[in-house]
Amino acid sequence: MSVDEIRIVLIDPQHSGNIGAVARAMKTMGLRPYLVRTSEFPSYEAERRAPGSTDILERAIVSDDAAEAVRDCQPVIGGSARTRWSTRASPPACSSLCRGGARVLVMGDFNTAHREIDLARPKDNRNTSGFLPEECCEIDRWVQAGWTDTYRHFDPGPDRYTWWSQRFEVRMKNIGWRLDYVLASPRR
Questions:
Q1: Which of 53, 110, 148, 157 could form a disulfide bond with 27, CB atoms 3.0-4.6 angstroms apart?
Q2: Which pLDDT band, with edges at 50, 70 and 90, does 122 fall under?
Q3: CB neighbours (10 Å) of residue 87?
Q4: Cα separation of 57 and 173, whole Å?
Q5: Which residue in 120, 124, 59, 70 sits closest to 96, CA to CA?
Q6: Which residues are paired to 176 by β-bridges?
Q7: What CA–CA distance (Å, rounded) separates 174 from 159?
Q8: Cα 141 to Cα 174: distance, rounded to the nearest angstrom
Q9: pLDDT, tens digit (0-9, with 9 covering 90-100), for 11-65
Q10: CB burial readout 159-186, b (16+ within 10 A) else e
Q11: What predicted TM-score, i.e. pTM, was given to this entire model?
Q12: Given this model, what pLDDT does residue 133 score?
C-alpha cells in the first residue's frame, strides 16, 4: 500500500481544532487530502492548529455520508472519544461500513478498563469512572456484536496496561489501566 492509497476520514470530530491537528500530521506524513463530516468546518480553530498545513485544509472534502466516504477503502480504521461511542460509533453504525467485505478497525482511548485483567487494582476501583459497570457494558456491546478486542486476542495475559498515573512512581510499579483498544470487525 502506498501513501497515495491512504484516506483519512473524520466523522463528527469533537472539536474543530482536531481537524487542524490531523491536517498538520497528514502534511508531515505526506498524506493526501481527507474527508470531513462536521458542521464545524471550515473554521478558524482548525486553521490555527494547522500551521504550515492550510493547503491540506483547503483541499479537504466535506461529505454528509460516512459510508460513501469509505466505500472503496480497504481496510477502514476509526477512532473516537469515549463520550461519543454510544451515539456516533455504535457496533451497528460501524458494521454498516463493512459493506462489500471491508474489514474495519475501530481504535482509540475508550478510557475504560473492560475487565478486571485490564487494571492493576480492580477491587479498589469498582466505583471509579473508567471501570464502572455501565462503562464496561459499552465494550461488552462491541464484543457481543462479534467485534474482536485485538489486544486480548493476541495477549490474554495480565499486567499489560496503556495508562499509568503520573504520581507515586506507579508506572515503575506497573500499577496501570488498559484504556486503549483496537476492535476488529466481525468476519463476514
A1: 53
A2: very high
A3: 9
A4: 43
A5: 70
A6: 164
A7: 7
A8: 29
A9: 677 778 878 877 877 777 677 666 666 677 788 888 888 888 888 888 887 877 7
A10: eebebbeeeeeeeeeebbbbbbbebbbe
A11: 0.63
A12: 94
